[in-house]
Amino acid sequence: MINKIKYRILILLALASFTACQNDDTVTANIEAMVAEPGDLLNQAFPQNKVRVEGNGLQGLKKITLDNTINITFNPNYNSDKSFIFTIPFDEKLGSRFGVQPITFTTASGSVTKNIEILQPDPTITKTIPAVATPGFPLEIEGTWFYNISSVTLGGKSVSYTVKSSSSIVIGLPANAVSGSELAITTPGGTAKKTIDFATIVLVSDFDGNGARTEWTSYGDIESFNTATAGGPTGNYTTLVWGGSNANGYNGSSGGGGASFLSASNTDATKAFIDIDVSANVAGANFAIQLNTIDGVNYGYNFKITDVNWSTKTISIADFKDNYGFGSNTAATLNPSKINEIKVGVAQGDSPNPSAIKFDNIKIRYQ
Questions:
Q1: In the beta sheet, which residues pair with residue 72?
Q2: pLDDT tens, 8-63?
Q3: 144 has pLDDT over 70
Q4: Could you read off the pLDDT of 189-211 as tens digits, one per residue?
Q5: Which long-range contacts (CB under 8 A, 24 or more apart) does 14-20 make?
Q6: Residue 262 to residue 266: CA distance in whole angstroms
């Protein structure tokens, strides 16, 4: 009997010893290092970096949670007891942010939390809209990583800006901006730079004594014409009144001809525009903008006023048509470098009587 008891005690001791050995062999999850590739950043990573996690007890990876909120997908085929790989996501809709934040790994042998720092990448500028900017007008900048912008400068001087998204901002271009100036967008990640080319803008007339054409005269069925009407958008403006006469069948005004407004290299009509501030006494007043006869063709563009308040009308040279604007052939193949005269009048056949059209700040622009 005593021998049986001794035997049972020996078995129990053996089992206890075996169990203790098993417990000693149990490995809990442990992270020794998180290395970002490429670059071998330790415990740091940029968005979209692959991160190699090294340690022990990592087999059976179940879940990766970043910043306590973002679940990270991973490929279980790249998981061993000593390592696994995942990619750093970045989605601001899910709450992604930069800086030091916790990351938790849940494996078959337990979970472990470490800190990782998500670094902000350098911003980039991919394009501007429009491709060629115009001083005094807004310019949209498209790019990447426009987060936490600290400054936007043009030619070293600060400019106003509005952030539309992390890939788009709109800047306000100064009226005196110089073509070839360097745009710089600075964030904690770095600075993106791009040389900005500006449109060529020629002031034809502002009716305050400035521009390439300062002496304007009228012709045809004009009731009255005043190039010094006070109270315009920037000073004096011109008022041309057609009172219903059809003795000539046409009317207009002109600052005369002379040297071409644009340089000989400005040959693409789709890149040339006329900007003009317009108003009228009544909605429906029909403006007629004409160019001097070029290559024997009379080009024109007609449009009706829909709002009697002052507004800026922009007309593409390519949208002008032959036969004083009433033809079917466009000026898309016109060489805008030949333009040296711009005429403004009323299209009498389809305009209220009387029509008093008002205009100011005529410019021709090439971009």
A1: none
A2: 444 444 444 444 444 445 568 899 999 998 878 999 999 999 999 999 999 999 99
A3: yes
A4: 999 999 998 888 899 999 999 99
A5: none
A6: 6
Euclidean distance between CA atoms 182 and 189, whole angstroms:
19
pTM exceeds 0.70, yes or no? no
Residues 208 and 214: their CA atoms lie apart, in Å, by: 8
Q: Which amino acid is at 180?
A: G
Distance CA 342, CA 294 (A): 12
Residue 348 has φ and ψ, to the nearest 5°, of -65, -30
Given a contact cutoff of 8 angstroms between Cβ atoms, the answer to whether 205 and 193 are in contact is no
264 backbone φψ class: left, alpha, beta (φ>0; ψ -120 to 50): alpha
Give the number of C-alpha atoms closer than 13 A to the C-alpha of residue 227, restricted to the C-beta side: 19
Residue with tokens 């054409």: 213
The span from the CA of 292 to the CA of 315, in Å, is: 16
Measured CA to CA, the distance from residue 291 to residue 301 in angstroms comes to 9
